Amino acid sequence: MESVEELDLDQLQDRFFSGKLLASVREKLPDDLCELSELTEETLLDNLQRRFADGLIYTYVGSILVSVNPFRYLPIYNPKIGELYQGRQLGDPSLRPHVFAVADDAFNSMVREKQRQCIVISGESGSGKTEATKLLLHHVMQGCAKVPTSEELRRILGTGPVLEAFGNAKTVSNNNSSRFGKFMQLNFQTNGCYAGASIEKYLLEKSRLIQQSQLERNYHIFYWLLAGADKKVKTRFFLLSGPEKYKILSGSEDPASKCYTVQGMDDVKEFESLQENMAVFFTPNQVLQVFQLIATLLNLGNIGFAEDESGEGSVVNTSDSLRVVSNLLRVNRETLGVALVTKKTTIRGQEFSCLFKKDEAEDNKRAMGKCLYEALFDWIVTKLNIKLGGRSRQMSKREVLSVGILDIFGFENFPHNSFEQFCI
Length: 424
Description:
The protein is α+β, with helices and mostly antiparallel strands and 424 residues long. Helices cover 44% and strands 14% of the residues.
C-alpha cells in the first residue's frame, strides 16, 4: 500500500475526490468509523492507519472529525475544494471528510437554527491544531461569511501570526507549538454578515520564559527580534549580542542541548512578516514599545546576585545589566536594585523591609519577568480585540450570533511537567 509520502500531489487530489475510489475504498475503509461492525480502540487505530496510508488524513467518528497530521503540504485546501463543501451537510456521502465540512456545518447551523456554535480542537502537541484553526478561520471567513471589506478579513486572519510570535515556541515534538490556549469568537448578524470578533487566552506557559527543556527554545519573538531588528533598533534597546548571550534563551545547562535555531524557520524573514502583521493592529510607536519590553526581559535575565557581607541578604552583582534594565523600564537604577533584593511585609499596621537571600532574589527576578511578559501578552490581546470588535459592539446579545473556535493547549507528558500541563 502506498504511503502519503509516496503519492505525488496530483495523485493525492485525484485519490481524495475520485468517485470510483469513494465506492471501492469505503467498503473496507468507511469515512465514518461508526459504520464499523465493531468499534474498539484497536479497530479505530487500524482504520486510521490504513486510511492515512491511502492519503486520507480525515475521518469521521459521528460528528467528530479525526485528523492525522501528514507533516507535509497536501493539495486539498484550495478555494475550489472549499466550494464543494459549501451548503452541504456534515457527513455527506458524496464528499470526503474534511475540516472544511466542519467549518461549513458550524456556520450553516448557526444561521439556520439561530444558535451560537462552537468548534473544539484538541490533541497532543504537534498534532496540527494550530493549522486546523487557520483552515477553519479561512473557510468560515472566505467561504461562508459575508465579509464587507478586505481590511476586516485581513485583520481576522492576521491575528494568528502575531499571537504565534509571542505565544508559540519550538518544543521537542513541534517547531511551532502553541504554549497558550485560545478561544476565538467570530460574531455575525442573523443574516450571516460578519460583525466582528474577539479573542480570549488562557494558561500562557510563563515558566518557559525562565527555563526550557533540552533542545527547546523560548518564545519565537526573542530570537526573531535579535535576528531581524536593524542596527538602529538593536543599539537603542541595547541588543548587541546573539541569543547565546542571554540567560533566558540558554535553556539546558548542557551546551549540546541548547537550541538557538529551528530547521526550516528563517528568523529574519519571520521578523519581517511579523512587523507587517503588527502594523495592522499597532502604531509604529506601540510596536517599538513592545520590542523595548522584549529587550528588557532579555537583559533582566542577565542580572545576577551575590551574598551580602552579612551572609543573610543579597546584592546585585551585575551593574551593567541593572543599568540597561532600569533605562529600558525608565525607572531609577537604585530603586530597581533595591526592589530586586528586598521584600516588604506589614505586621500590625507597620511596614517592615527584609533582604532576600541569593536564591530568593533570583526567584523574585524571575517572577518579575513572568509578570511583565504576561502583562505584555494580555495587552497585545486587548489591542487585537479593539481592532476586531467591529459592529458587534453596537448590537445587543440577542442580535449577535457566533461561531467559536477553541484551540486547546496541546497536552504532553514529560518526566517533569509544567503547572500549565497539570491544569490541562
